[in-house]
Amino acid sequence: MIDYDLYVMTKKERILFTLAVFGGCSALGYIFYRTALALIVSPFIYRRCEKIYSCYMISRRKKKLVLEFKDFLFLISSSLATGRHMVPSMREARAGLERIYTDSIMGKELDSMIKFVDETGADEIDLLLDFSRRTQLEDIEDFTQLYQCCRQTGGNLIEAVDKAASIIGEKIAIENEIRATASQKKIEGRIIASMPVFIIVFLQVISPNYLNVMYETITGRFLMTAALIVTAAAFVVIERITSIEI
Is pLDDT at 29 greater than 70 in this prediction? Predict the structure, then answer.
């Protein structure tokens, strides 16, 4: 079972990530200090970079899961309308997801659920509750509670599933609009924050000797360090300002 609050990189991904961190440190070290000694600090910031990357990938995976879950609800709604029970509807929805997505996260979850039901005869409600607990996603938790309530009270499950799918679809559309606006501002902020780096690189290319005083004196190195800290702080501030929780 997948823990959606934990992200584990593949071996290839780990190698590329490590090269990116050490390569970035080397580039910044040369730009601000004209030395490769910045590689010394790479191990100290590696864990921090890994945490940031893992949080990004977890968020990306959950967004994809919510989108697939919406399609899953539409598929099981159509199947339930023909008189099938939940487990057969889940089987049919799994086939539908396979036609829509090449590598479906929701499809893998359905495979595990269906296999577990076939082997142990477990109640699908227990599996859905476990699924919602692992994802910690409001939409999935709401649907699971709704399905459990319909089972216990004999409510109209087909109508409830249709309504849930429509609400999630509208929510995703609104979130995409908000994220598109925030993404534009985030790109603009990143460009502004990275201007000191571009200016230093430009000067090094046009007139390498012009910045010699910044690399050969204590005062110059201090100013370069201050510029690096301010640039990093600007990136952090911009990311926090443009990161909108929906």
Answer: yes
Sequence letter at residue 129: L
Among the listed residues 179, 183, 180, 173, the one whose alpha carbon sits nearest the alpha carbon of residue 67: 173
How far apart are the C-alpha atoms of 161 and 150, rounded to whole Å? 10
Residue that is written with structure tokens 């697939």 in the block: 68
Question: Closest by alpha carbon to 24, among 42, 44, 43, 51?
Answer: 42
pTM: 0.79
